[in-house]
Amino acid sequence: MLDSQVLVRDTDFSRLALTWEQLAQLMGEQGDATTPAKLRQLAEKTRRAELNIAFCGHFSAGKSTMINTLLGVSLLPSNPIPTSANVVKIRGGEKAARVYTMNGDVVTFDPDTEMEKLKQFAVDGDTVESVEVSYPGTLLDEHSSLLDTPGIDSTDAAHKIATESALHLADVVIYMMDYNHVQAEENFNFTKTLKDRGKPVYLVVNMIDKHIDFELDFESYKESVEEAFATWNIHPDGIFYTSLAEPDHPENQYVELKQKLLSLIAGREELVAKSVRSAAEHLIEEHVQAVKASHAQTRQELENKLDSLNVADVDSRDAHAVAAALEQAQAIMQSLGNRAAEARAQMEKELGVLLDNARLTYYSTSEAAASYLESRKPGFKMGFLFAGKKTEEERQRREEALLAEFREKVAGNLDFHFKELMSKQLQAYELRDEDYHARVHATEIVITGEFLAKHIKDGAASREYVMNYCTDVASAIKLEYRRAGLAFIEEVIARLATNMQAESASQQERLDVLREMAAVHGQLASFTASEENIRERLQAIMREGEQES
């Protein structure tokens, strides 16, 4: 934080005023009809480096009488009713009294001879916008003013609005209370609001002549006042106990109060430099709230829409929960879309691994194949007598031997595992079909003599030739199993697609609702982002203006 003396010395009030006007223009462009006017008022006050000391409090606390007494001249009505519907500003300088009306007219009066007329205007909140009086010879100069605000406890809402709307122009607040009403909750609420806004606040407990000492000594009364405000976490900049009815009251601090005001006026520039910055910050926040209010109806409609959207296990108002559920639903839909292709690829891969690893030829197979191939050569002949019959019988025997060899190896190394694999495919995808299982187990790849014969090729009956023949037969057998396996895989895929169609419809419905929820949250987030962007932009302009000043 800058040292206060440096702050005063380096403050260019004219430059700050231009900054407030720039902020007001931007706010007006964003549709704010209230805050820009306050900023322009703040700019006018800043340009003059004018100190405003606002007197606030209950209408019966004696604000007007106190101001008249401090000034040494009766400029304000002091009837015990909530008279002032407007904020009345009193400053030093040449004698003048002006009433600014709602339609832009300015009515002038002589403060010495026509104050009764002025007082009538001061209570007319419907046509009067503001009242200003300047008067020489008081504790005020032309750069310092006292503001008399309407009573905060008035039943007239316009009175409260007038008080609150003037607070951005107040550099210091003198909060006055009747001796008997110090601990009214309204006092605590209002003064806490002022302190939260960074305003210097001095409490004045007026009419202490009502105190009866034998009921409670005055020191104990003062302690009770301080403790009451401390309980609300309110720490005023000072507390004064006054009596105008009994100036000689031993506890009367009227003189100290007046000295404090003179001290504040003497330190005008330092107070103003701090105050206008604080006021501008508050008005920026007030503008952001106005922007939020302009979004309120649409925001409520969007929130109502969220309430009308329902998805199991998802809180529609929770943006993070909706986003997480949407991501999950999208992943499920994508998974469903890929499931059939992934299932097919997985089953074909498992079938391929089974077939590749199934060993169908051994040494015994090669020996049987060599014998079989020899019997198929042209010129193969057995014996001399009855050679034709013997040759055919031998050929048949050798064929049966090779068939038995392959059938044994297929049964032990392929067929059993094939049927086990095909049977479990349905279970892997939580499908049930007894007929499918029966057909899998009824699968039979028949190896016949014709099957063996059609793989014979011309060539020398070498060991290599025999091995190639065995490989060709084994590959042909596996090919038949592959065809059968692919047919079963197609059945599983068809069943899976049917189930997925129903699941996809349900998931799509859930996904559509979640997308709608997410879109609504996106709109709500855009409002929040735009409000924050407005705040950041205005604060950046303010910082830039402060640096240049």
TrEMBL record:
<dbReference type="Pfam" id="PF00350">
    <property type="entry name" value="Dynamin_N"/>
</dbReference>
<dbReference type="GO" id="GO:0005525">
    <property type="term" value="F:GTP binding"/>
</dbReference>
<dbReference type="GO" id="GO:0008053">
    <property type="term" value="P:mitochondrial fusion"/>
</dbReference>
<keyword id="KW-0342">GTP-binding</keyword>
<keyword id="KW-0472">Membrane</keyword>
<dbReference type="InterPro" id="IPR027417">
    <property type="entry name" value="P-loop_NTPase"/>
</dbReference>
<dbReference type="GO" id="GO:0016020">
    <property type="term" value="C:membrane"/>
</dbReference>
<keyword id="KW-0175">Coiled coil</keyword>
<feature type="coiled-coil region">
    <location>
        <begin position="292"/>
        <end position="346"/>
    </location>
</feature>
<keyword id="KW-0378">Hydrolase</keyword>
<dbReference type="InterPro" id="IPR027094">
    <property type="entry name" value="Mitofusin_fam"/>
</dbReference>
<dbReference type="InterPro" id="IPR045063">
    <property type="entry name" value="Dynamin_N"/>
</dbReference>
<keyword id="KW-0547">Nucleotide-binding</keyword>
<protein>
    <recommendedName>
        <fullName>Dynamin N-terminal domain-containing protein</fullName>
    </recommendedName>
</protein>
<dbReference type="GO" id="GO:0003924">
    <property type="term" value="F:GTPase activity"/>
</dbReference>
<feature type="domain" description="Dynamin N-terminal">
    <location>
        <begin position="53"/>
        <end position="206"/>
    </location>
</feature>
